[in-house]
UniProtKB/TrEMBL annotation:
InterPro entries: Pirin, Pirin_C_dom, Pirin_N_dom, RmlC-like_jellyroll, RmlC_Cupin_sf. Residues 193-295 form the Pirin C-terminal domain. Transmembrane segments: none annotated. It comes from the Bacteria. This is Pirin family protein. Gene3D superfamilies: Jelly Rolls. Pfam families: Pirin, Pirin_C. Belongs to the pirin family. Residues 52-126 form the Pirin N-terminal domain.
């Protein structure tokens, strides 16, 4: 499910799948007959293969001119890229990838459990300003154990849990974003939070500066009151940046994504996976990709997955490795 976003964000995709058990190839252990394999967004039986043929996910594809922030709340993602990076992350981890001048990467969803495999992912596209669109590709992991969390509690004991992917809340600051990110400058007031509210929980979003864009993406629950106005699930609500905003949850648990940032006041020209400032730059991106494949593909297949026994890890193009 794609969501429209406000500048400086370009796009947000939400994937919620209830996959069956996995087979020896880490794909679904059921028949794929009747699916448009390679282009399956059907949601048939509660899940999709997307562009995957054996394992669900998105085989090697290019990006230029922006960043992807991938939040995986349930399940796992196997990452590989054209600069030699790879890893497995999920169940609360976040990957921050600056595509910059160009990167080819794959995001596959290995099904490790023999029974049901729950999966939930947000991918947020955050634009880069002109000065940063052609920087070298760079990615880092924000591991779930290190992502700051704030827990609020009403006098009746109803809790709100805020995971701070970018920005800050009540004095707790997120881990540093990538160095060339629009979010790296605090004056841009970029905030990315995932929020879970228990029944009848409450929270307040503090005011920001004039001209900041901000919105709530309400994806799980029943009703949520924003400044005493009830909204229903699957709604996107733009907020006034210059006012404190009070949220009160209804009788069922609610979950939402909060995005905020100063708009990048430059032309935005998008063609598929390329986001630049002019049509000429888009044309150049296409020519560069056709000519160089943004460094080529060092992996054995476009839909590479890591061994089943691998844990959560990240490998970088410079040879560094992290394990969790």
């Amino acid at each position: 499910m794609p969501w429209d976003t406000q500048n400086p964000f370009i796009f947000c995709a939400y994937h919620g799948d209830k996959y069956p058990g996995g087979n020896e190839n880490l794909g679904p252990n059921v028949s794929l007959a009747g699916r448009a394999i390679g282009q399956d967004f059907s949601g048939k039986d509660g899940w999709s293969m997307y562009h995957g043929h054996t394992v669900p996910g998105f085989p090697a594809h290019p990006h230029r001119g922006f960043e992807t922030v991938t939040i995986v709340t349930k399940g796992l993602v196997d990452h590989t890229d054209s600069v030699g990076g790879g890893g497995r992350f999920g169940n609360g981890d976040v990957q921050w990838l600056t595509a910059g001048k160009g990167v080819l990467h794959a995001e596959m969803f290995p099904l490790l459990n023999k029974e049901e495999n729950q999966f939930e992912l947000f991918q947020i596209w955050l634009n880069l300003p002109r000065k940063s669109k052609m920087v070298a590709p760079h990615y880092k992991m924000l591991w779930k154990e290190e992502i700051p969390e704030v827990i609020l509690e009403t006098t009746e004991g109803a809790k709100t849990t805020i995971n701070i992917v970018a920005g800050e809340y009540q004095g707790k600051k997120a881990l540093a974003p990538n160095p060339d990110s629009w979010a790296a400058d605090s004056n841009n007031e970029v905030q990315i939070w995932t929020v879970k509210m228990e029944p009848y929980a409450e929270m307040e979003i503090p005011a920001a500066q004039e001209g900041i864009n901000r919105g709530v993406y309400y994806y799980q629950g029943d009703t949520l009151a924003i400044e005493q106005q009830d909204i229903n699930v699957q709604q996107i609500i733009a907020l006034n940046p210059e006012e404190n905003v009070t949220l009160k949850n209804g009788e069922k648990p609610s979950e939402f994504l909060f995005l905020q940032g100063r708009p990048i006041n430059e032309p935005v020209v998008q063609y598929g996976p390329f986001v630049m400032n002019s049509q000429e730059e888009i044309h150049q991106a296409m020519m560069d990709y056709q000519r160089t494949q943004f460094g080529g593909w060092p992996w054995s297949s476009a839909d590479h997955v890591h061994p089943k026994e691998a844990g959560r890890f990240a490998e970088y193009g410079d040879g560094r490795r992290e394990e969790k």
